[in-house]
Every structure is written in C-alpha cells, then in structure tokens.
Amino acid sequence: MRSSLSGFVLAAGKAKRMGVLCDPKANRFPIAKPALTVGRNSLIRQQLYLLQLMGITTAAIAVKHSAETVRRAIVRDNNLSIKTEIFDLNDLEVEDWGAAWTVSRWLAMTPDCPENLVVLNGDVVWDERLARPFIERFLAGSDWGQILAAHTPLEHIFGRFGAIQLKGEQALTIYHDYLNQCRAAAGDQEKLVHARMDYQAAWLRRVEQIAGQVVRVRHFQEKPAQSDYHSHVSSLANVGLFALKTGVFDRFAHSLGADFADFARHLFQAGMIKEHLPLSAFIATAGSYWRDIGTPKDLLRANFGLLNSRINLGYQGEEVRPGVWLGRGVEIPSAVLEQITPPVIISDDVMIGNKVRLGPRVVVGRGWRIGGQARVSNSLLLPAYYPEDRNRVIAARQAIDHAIIAGGTIDRSVENMIAVISPAGEVVYYDYRF
To answer: Are 371 and 394 in contact (CB under 8 A)?
Structure first.
C-alpha cells in the first residue's frame, strides 16, 4: 500500500572537514558523522527522533563511508518506534550520486514509494520544536516542496551554506537599498562592510516579521563568497531539512541525469524554480537552534549547546542533580557526584574513580573508565563503535580539557586535541584548532 509520508536521512557523506575522527587513513576506527554523539545519543538517532515527532513511521537511511558505525548507532541508540531501512551505496558500487540523485534512485527502487518525503541531512542538529510546525505547514499546503530556512549570520553562511532568496516586494526593497549603499561606497572597504551590516540587520528584522510562516522561494545562492558585496545574499540559510512531493523526482528525472545531482543547484534551482513549480521556505522562529556538524569544533559546540539547554534532544539520563544526568549502570563515588560542576552527562556503564573532578560541560559516552584524581572539563568522550574497540580509559591524575577522545587508554593530559587509535594501534593526538 502506498504510504502518504516517509523519511529519508542522508548519511553517506565523506566528512572531509571532520579530519581524523572520520578518516580511515589516520584512524583505525573511523566514525561516520551521523554516528557521532551529541549528548548520549547519536546524530542519526536524533534525525529518526525528529521524523517520529513529525508522525513518520518509516525511514530510509543512505550510508556509504564507515557505514557499519551508522548501523551500530541505530541499533544501540534507537529505542524509537520508527522502522528503518538501510540504503547502502556500497552495495551498488556507487562513489557519489549527489543527494538528490541518491533519493531519486532510492524512490525508483522502492516498490511502494510514498507520496510525500521528508529529507534530512544526517549531520545537522535541529531544535526539535521545529519538527511539527514544519511538517504541518507542508501537509496543509499545496506546494511541491518546502525547505527549512533559518536566520544565520552572514559570516557563517559565506563559503559554507546555501542562501535562500525570497519572493516579495519587501525582500527586494531591502536588497535594492543595500545595492544603492554598495554603489555609493565606490569601493571603500569600510563603507562596504557597514553597508553589509545594515543589510543583515534589515534582513533580521524581516525574518522576525515572517518567523513561523511559509514564504515562496525566488532563488538559491549556493555558498556565496564573502568578497561579493553586490549579490542578493540573504541571511536565511538552507539548513538541510526538506519536505517534497515525490512526484517532483519523476518530473525532473530527465534533468537529474549524468548520475549526479544535488538539491540546491539541480533539483531546486535548475528544476523547480526554473519551471515555476511552487517551492517555499518555512522560516524558523527566532532563537531556534540548528548547527551543521562540519568540523570537530562544531561537534563540541553542539554538545555544549545541549548541555547549556539551548536545545532539547530528548532523554539524556536521570537528572540526579540540577544539570547532572546519569545513565544506567554508572559507578561513581558519592563525594565525586556531589562535587561535579554542571552541566555534565554521564552515559551508561561508566566507572569513575575517587577524587575525580568532572565539569563543566562534559559528556562521557558509554563504557568509559576514569581513573582516580583525573580532571575532565569542556570535553566529549565518545562511545565505542566497533566490537574490537572496547578499551576506553582516562588514566589516573590526567587532565582533559576541550578535547574529543575517541578511545584507547589516555595516559597523558590533553588540551585542544582529538585522540584516536591509529591504524598501527597506538593512541595518537591531533590539534583540531584550525
């Protein structure tokens, strides 16, 4: 029977900017980005949770690089009711189809494809409060596609995210005022910077007026350059959450050829917008949280955002003290527990020694052993993703700060570093401040 709504998670990316965490050449146990954890749960679990909040009961997950870590994360973290299907590009001997072509091929190979599809990037954290209003507005309307758009400072958009340009006289007026300022600046860099600041402030006021509304999309500008002062760069970023009528893939199958197509450039801009099919943006409300997990710093900041209550990502354990959450099977001396500096999340089956100092802003993944008198602050200790990778120890009296530790026995103090297991089997440390 043909279902009305299903989900599709894009979890096949190569994660080049994550460095050694995801690089099989540097890390014996490379991790796919969607398997990385924010709090006690993996990103892929968060995507499935978001789909479930939308009332979706089935979802496909496209995987390729370090695919086994995504599979294990789903089994380990997924205590949800949503049913999942793995679409493994390795089985099809595909290197890279592009996101839109991947979804198109999955639909072509699915006997009972849905009428509507929600597509999520597997490496983005969204505020769960956006889920229901986003899908409700799409299902209540007649548009062929709807994109989640969120106000994002221009300095974060440049070179990294697609900017969404809206239809409407007010949007064009804001742009024309900005363009006139740029022309009047006559190449004066200081005046150009001020013109852009005024433009961004005007866009923010406009976004606040239309927050929670659905507005028609006029154009996409993919990863605009910071040096381009004259383009219509809005402060609305495409944050990788789409709802689409699946018929749009049938309509544009001919233009998604050459075995590669992405959403922004090919399906949306060259397809739907060019042929005037209704494509809209749902404008996220002010203060709604989202973060693309592109780099190790992003991963830490997403965890800090959760710890600081900027986002709600579901159950994190039992809150035994304000800002301190414990999972099942945690062994911790009462004196250590009382002296934790919140916020701290300690996942299942963790053992903590005497006189350990934890916090602030610490997430301890499943299975870690922290030796006596160790200090851990502003850090993420990742759970195991491979059956043979079970050794997770912070040795006694070591200090860990602003670090991401992926496993092994850590017998030295670590600051501003990522620790992984090299292909040779030893723990190696990499500075991630880039």
So the answer is: yes
pLDDT at residue 2 greater than cutoff 60: no
- Residue 72 has what DSSP assignment? H
Instruction: Name the 3-class secondary structure at 323.
Output: coil
Name which residue leads in pLDDT, 1 or 8: 8
Structure confidence by residue, pLDDT tens digits, 287-338: 788 889 999 999 999 999 889 876 777 678 899 999 999 999 999 999 999 9
How many contiguous H segments (helices) and E segments (strands) does the chain have?
Answer: 10, 29
Position 363, amino acid = V
Give the Cα separation of 45 and 66 in Å (integer): 16
Domains assigned to the chain: 5-292 (3.90.550.10), 321-431 (2.160.10)
Q: At what angle do helices 67-77 and 43-53 cross, to 10 degrees?
A: 60
State residue 363 phi and psi, 5-degree precision.
Answer: -120, 120
Residue type, position 45, single letter: R
Tokens of 298: 């992003």
Give CA–CA dist 151/292, Å, rounded: 14
Count CB-CB contacts under 10 A for residue 81: 8
Nearest alpha carbon to residue 303 among 80, 38, 78:
38
CA torsion, ordered 302, 308, 311, 315, to nearest 10 deg: 100
Q: Which residues pair with 84 in a beta bridge?
A: 59
Alpha carbon dihedral 109, 113, 116, 121, in 10-degree steps, equals: -40
Sheet of 357-358: strands edge to edge? 357-358, 375-377, 399-401, 414-415
Question: 357 has which bridge partners?
Answer: 375
pTM of the model: 0.92
Answer whether 356's CB lies under 8 Å from 378's CB.
no
Q: Which of 280, 281, 261 is nearest to 271 (CA)?
A: 261
CA distance 284 to 240: 13
In terms of phi and psi (left: phi > 0; alpha: psi -120 to 50; beta: otherwise), the region of 349 is left
For 206-251, what is each residue's pLDDT tens digit?
Answer: 888 999 999 999 988 888 888 887 777 788 999 899 999 999 998 8
